[in-house]
Every structure is written in structure tokens, then in C-alpha cells.
Amino acid sequence: MVLLFCRLGKGQKEYVDRRGVHVVVGHYLGDAAFAGHSANLTDEIINSNMYAPVPGDGNDGMAVVIPPHMSDRMRQLYRINRFNLMASDRISVNRTLPDVRKKKCKSKYTDLEGLPKTSVIIVFHNEAWSTLLRTVWSVINRSPRNLLEEILLVDDASTRGFLGKGLEDYIKNLTVPTKVIRTRKRIGLIRARLMGAKKANGHILTFLDAHCECTTGWLEALVTRVAEDRTRVVCPVIDIISDDTFAYVRSFELHWGAFNWDLHFRWYTMTSDEIIKRRKEITEPFRTPAMAGGLFAMDKNYFFEIGAYDEKMEVWGGENLELSFRVWQCGGTVEIAPCSHVGHLFRKSSPYSFPGGVSQVLYGNLARVALVWMDEWKEFFFKFSPEAERMRDKQAVRSRIELRKQLNCKGFRWYLNNVWPQHFFPMEGRFFGAIKHEVRGECLEKPTGKGSLNQPMGPAVLVRCTSVPQLSQMFVMSGEREGFIATDESVCLDSPDSDGSPFPRVKVMACSGQARQRWKYHIGNKTLQHVSSGHCLDLPRDGSIEKGLVLNPCVGSGSQAWIMQSVEWR
Ligand code: LR7
Ligand code: MN
């Protein structure tokens, strides 16, 4: 298992995290940072096809080591695609990868008789040669030929020379029918995928990003699950290809996808109960509230029946939630098949331009998701996301709302309650607001430290209350007066040493569903009682408040008095 961290540089802003991933953008330079390449990266360098593999490099998914005397050049090339292009170019497009599946997977999905074929659709904009072709070769080398209809490469107006005729000539010799489809101008990945889907001949559509590597067995699991039930949208487990060394790193299989209050996609861990339940059936696919976006298979007719993609979405972002909500709310399911592993090259920042501006594009798309699918929770989103609020009135969504009616889709409340019961969104019957210490007049705040999966983690601390409600000080209690106390990113008020130490500290940690994360608020004496130990949330007696709050025997003193200050969320 790998711990997924996100490294943020100074002045960078994380827009969408997904390795939680990493679309960190160079916000400090504004959108101009995306407009092109640094001055000394000449067109000649950018357009040269650097392909010159070193035999054996990167085989078996190993990391590539660049000799020290080449590091200047390496750094220069890194900037073109925001990954180590030199490392990628040294690896064969046919490199070998380990079979990373659980042993049990090897005897699963072996009866391929009568299964339908899939078109593999790969959209790209100015992708590097070696990563694009390694994606293609990994499909060819590690897919059963009788499940593969064709590979469709959709070029979203790339400007790099080698992606022109050079690419067309190259694919003519492949053993799987492969086509390049070109958009006339930049249409963004959403409309590019739609273009590929319309041209596809396969019964099933399988989408991949242009910098992926498929491992043994990846396709059998996806196709089988879709063939068994056409309303299933099936995703592989997404492993990590390092942007620095191109090492293939297997990731934990039991993360499922959802999102945070700002509608950014996130991985969360299953609750401990669910992990235990799954012990007997570790290879069984499991349902996920949302998909990461780039890698999934689905029945082609079903794809179009339920509305394909929202054609008014621009460039990048939001389409993964839109499709997830739509599939779930309109009667389908989204799942992850742990026997299917595909590597994806994660980058720390986005290499290409976002015509229209990063924030406008992303929040415009997210505003559409909220307006069409989220019912009263859209108000929660817009209330706390000024970027989205600014884009709200610009969206024409009538036809998508019409589609939702036609398909007779369920509401967002149903989605939250049934698809994602562990969610931490406000709701009727839940407290939402600030938790304030009565004497100190300070508020509980989400820690800034990071734990695994990039979730916030740290001691529960008090800071000055903000004059207008801010999400960093907003907490949800899963019941009106009793339940878990969570905040954004699925973290909960917890006391990990509450069964041992005499004055256990209180921390904010990943919500786990464990009993020790349950709290009860007593209106009478204003105490917040930790249910499993029976003790109360308190200030540390020794004054070490910076180390966080503690649990003490309940005495109802001033230091144990809390005000649960409700905030209107819609
Ligand atoms: O204008 C564009 N036109 C394109 O054709 C912009 C992008 N693209 C192509 C691009 O070349 C790439 O092949 O679209 C593909 C996806 O773009 P990335 O690789 O920049 O996206 P990402 O990997 O950073 O982001 C994820 O979120 C996106 C939101 O719109 C898409 O859904 C991506 O497919 C998605 N990637 C994954 O889900 C991979 C696994 C991430 C995890 C976990
Ligand atoms: Mn990608």
C-alpha cells in the first residue's frame, strides 16, 4: 500500500486533488502560466520526438535512474509535459509490468466466451510520444485480442508535429485496428471523448487517459462486469506511475471515490467494518459514490441512453462527478473492480492551457453539475464557493434538467442517503455550524496538517472565530444532538487514546465509523460527551492548549461548555 501525499509548492494552489490527485496549478502566475512553455524551451525541443529507449530501462515497472551528467537536460525536458520526459523516453513503449493483481484474480474472469468487444478511447492534447504510445502498446500487449474491437485516438487539436502524420503512419502497422480522429479546434476532453464514443464500433466503451499503462487482466474484469449488467459503469484500480521516475506503484485497492465540499474528487478509505466484511471476498468489485473520471468501461448504448456527457462542459473537470451522479441517480451503478489495475501518470500540475481560464472552466463545469444534479445541496455549494457562484448564471442547463426528468432520476438526497451514507454534507436532522468554546469564545477548526490520502489531520485546536462562517470552522454532527462530528474531507473528531491514557487528547482524523468517533451534546450543561469513554471535551488543565483539546471526566465546568452555533447552509 502506498500513502498518497500531495506535494504543494510555494504559491501553488490545489484545484482538484486526486492522488489524491494532483491538479495543482501555478495559481501565483495566474492563468498565463498555462498559456505556453518557458522561453528557453524552443519549439524545436518541444516538437522533437525524443524517443531513444535504453534497453531494459523501466522494465517490470522499475524506476528509471538518470545519470547525473544529464540532469540539466532532464530538468529542461521535464517542463514540456510536467513529467520526466527523459525518463519516459528511455523506457520501451513495450516495457514489461508486474502482474499486480491479488492471486485470486488469476482464476477469475477467465471465461471470455461470448463476451462483447470494446473500443478503447484515448483522448489527448499535446501528449508526449512515449507516454501516448506506451498507453497504446499496453492495451495491445495485455488485452485478450477477442475483447478488443479497436483503439480510437482522439487528438484534441494538438500542435506538436510528431502527433500528425508521424502518428498516423505509426499506427498503420499495429496489430489492433487503430484510428486517429482529430477535432478541428480544441474542444476539451469531454467533447473529445464524446466524439470518440460516437465513432466507436465496439459494444462497450473503455476510456483511458493518454498516459496510462494497463496491466495483465485489466480488461477481462471490466468487460465481464459490464457484460453481466449493462447499467454498470466499471473502473479499474488506479495505480501510480511516478512523474519523476516512471516507477509503477501499486495502490491500495480499498479506496473508494467521492468528493469534498468544493466538489473536488477525493479518495477515501472504507470504514473498518466494510474492510472486515470484504475479507472473504477481496476480489469482488465494490460500489463507489464517484469515479476519478479518466478510466472506466461502460456499455455503449447505455452511455448514450443516459445522456453521454454534458456537451456544454469545457476543457477539463467536473464530468466525472456529472457522470457518477447521473448514473447513480438514474438507476445505474458505478463500481471499482479490484482485479483490474491500470497505472496512471500523476502530475503535480497541468501542462496545457485552459482556454477561458482555469477557474472559470473548472467552476463553470462544477456549477453545471450542481445545478442539474444536486437539488438543495447546490445552494450549499454556491454559498461557500464564490468561484462557482460567479459562473452560476452563465450556465444554460435546461436540456440537462429535461434529460433528468425524462430518465425519471432520483434526487440528491437519495444519492447521499443510499449511495454514500458515510457522507459529511449537511442535511435535515443534522447539526451544521461552528463549535465554540463558551468561555474562550474561540472555535474549533479543521487542522492544516495532512494525513494519508492528503486528508487533514491533527490535534483539535481552537482559534479565533471568523466573522462570517467559513468552511474551515464548519462541522456537521450526523444527528441533531448525537453522532459523529465531521468536517470537510471526511475527517472526524476522534480520541484515539481514549481507552488508555488518563487525559486523552482529542484529534481530527479520517472518519472511520468506529464507536470512538461518536459524541453527544447535552444542551443543559453544554457539554460535548465522548460516547465510548463517557468523558467530556475539555481544555487541557495544564494550559497546553496548542497541543489540542482533551477528554476529562464530565463535571459541567466552564471549561467544558460548548456552544453549537448553527449556520444556514442553503
Ligand atoms: O483540453 C483537453 N483535451 C484533452 O484531450 C485537456 C485534456 N485532454 C486529455 C489529456 O491529454 C488526457 O489524456 O484528456 C485526458 C485527461 O486529462 P489530464 O490527464 O490532464 O487529466 P487528469 O489526469 O489530471 O485528471 C482527471 O480528471 C479529469 C477531469 O476532467 C479527467 O476526468 C481525467 O480523465 C482524470 N484522470 C483520471 O481519472 C486518471 C486517474 C486519476 C486518479 C485517481
Ligand atoms: Mn491524466
From TrEMBL:
Cofactor entry: Mn(2+)
Membrane topology note: Single-pass type II membrane protein
Keywords for the protein's UniProt record, in alphabetical order: Disulfide bond, Glycosyltransferase, Golgi apparatus, Lectin, Manganese, Membrane, Metal-binding, Signal-anchor, Transferase, Transmembrane, Transmembrane helix
Pathway listed: Protein modification; protein glycosylation
GO biological process terms, semicolon-separated: protein O-linked glycosylation
Keyword flag Transferase: yes
Predominant localisation class: Golgi
Enzyme Commission number, as recorded: 2.4.1.-
Limits of the Ricin B lectin domain: 433-565
A GO molecular function held by the record: polypeptide N-acetylgalactosaminyltransferase activity
Gene3D superfamilies documented for this protein: 2.80.10.50, Spore Coat Polysaccharide Biosynthesis Protein SpsA, Chain A
Residue ranges the record marks as coiled coil: none
Database matches in InterPro entries: GalNAc-T, Glyco_trans_2-like, Nucleotide-diphossugar_trans, Ricin_B-like_lectins, Ricin_B_lectin
Keyword rRNA-binding in annotation: no
Domain of life: Eukaryota
EC class (word): transferase
Localisation: Golgi apparatus membrane
GO cellular component, one term: Golgi membrane
Similarity comment: family membership: Belongs to the glycosyltransferase 2 family. GalNAc-T subfamily.
Protein's name in the database: Polypeptide N-acetylgalactosaminyltransferase
